[in-house]
Write a structure and sequence with these properties.
Blueprint lengths: L3 E7 L4 H11 L5 E8 L6 H8 L3 E3 L8 H14 L4 E4 L8 H6 L4 E5 L11 H8 L3 E8 L9 E8 L6 H24 L3 E4 L2 E4 L16
Parallel strand pairs: 1-2, 1-4, 2-3, 4-5
Antiparallel strand pairs: 5-6, 6-7, 8-9
Helix pairs in contact: 1-6, 5-6
This protein binds glycinamide ribonucleotide.
The site of glycinamide ribonucleotide has 14 residues, from helix 1, strand 5 and helix 6.
């Protein structure tokens, strides 16, 4: 089977992007990252792409006539490079229709909370402020809403009353780096089937030590 081709969109430091690179390098994910697109020049993800020899592009939304034009251009760049799956790795924008229509159920996002709790910005801060006892992270398919698409994998972490946004973020990030490559692997193996809001996963065995809860079929 040929490698799954990925396009990654990021806005910041890109540690999830790096986790995906590392899984590919370790031979645990049969994929190839064709392109990184960032929406600001300061995104450290660019540096990671350069180090790895991954083509990268910086597209500034303000330089486009409209948000739709911005996403249309992104879709074009990804299509030109033969990207099959789009991976949002800390991409801090709501994806609009031109990109979603170009990649139906072929865009993934990771969010630092147990959706549908605490969508949007600062999921970890929202969890601390609310005083929940459990939070975590979610990989989901992207639709036109804000963090509303069908859930693929979630992983949970305990939250203590002493937690700060930073301490909780650190704990959640470790799990993000595990479940995101894992979700991409499931996709690459053709194991994900979307039925309404539910994602069915066939023949899934969670790696040892992972606190994940996909439905077993
Ligand atoms: C991650 O915690 C990711 O879950 C979050 O941004 C961080 C990016 O870190 N994404 C969102 O909040 C999306 N709503 P990274 O740049 O090191 O991967």
């Amino acid at each position: 089977m040929s490698k799954l081709t990925l396009g990654v969109l990021a806005s910041g430091r890109g540690s999830n992007f790096q986790a995906i690179i590392d899984e590919i390098d370790a031979g645990r994910l049969d994929a190839e990252i064709r392109l990184l697109i960032v929406d600001n020049v300061e995104a450290y993800a660019i540096e990671r792409a350069r180090r790895q020899g991954i083509e990268n592009l910086c597209l500034i939304p303000g330089e486009f006539q409209s948000k739709d034009d911005f996403f249309l251009r992104i879709a074009g760049e990804l299509k030109t490079r033969g990207v099959e799956l789009v991976v949002l790795a800390g991409f801090m924008r709501i994806v609009r229709k031109p990109l979603i229509d170009a990649f139906p159920y072929r865009i993934l996002n990771i969010h630092p909370a147990l959706l549908p709790s605490f969508p949007g910005l600062h999921g970890q801060r929202q969890a601390v402020d609310y005083g929940v006892r459990i939070s975590g992270c979610t990989v989901h398919f992207v639709d036109e809403g804000m963090d509303t698409g069908p859930v693929i994998i979630q992983a949970a972490v305990p939250v203590s009353p002493e937690d700060t946004e930073d301490s909780l973020s650190e704990r959640i990030l470790k799990l993000e780096h595990k479940i995101y490559p894992e979700a991409i692997r499931l996709y690459s193996e053709g194991r994900l089937r979307v039925e309404g809001r539910t994602v069915k996963i066939t023949g899934y065995r969670p790696p040892e030590g992972h606190i994940v809860n996909p439905p077993l079929i």
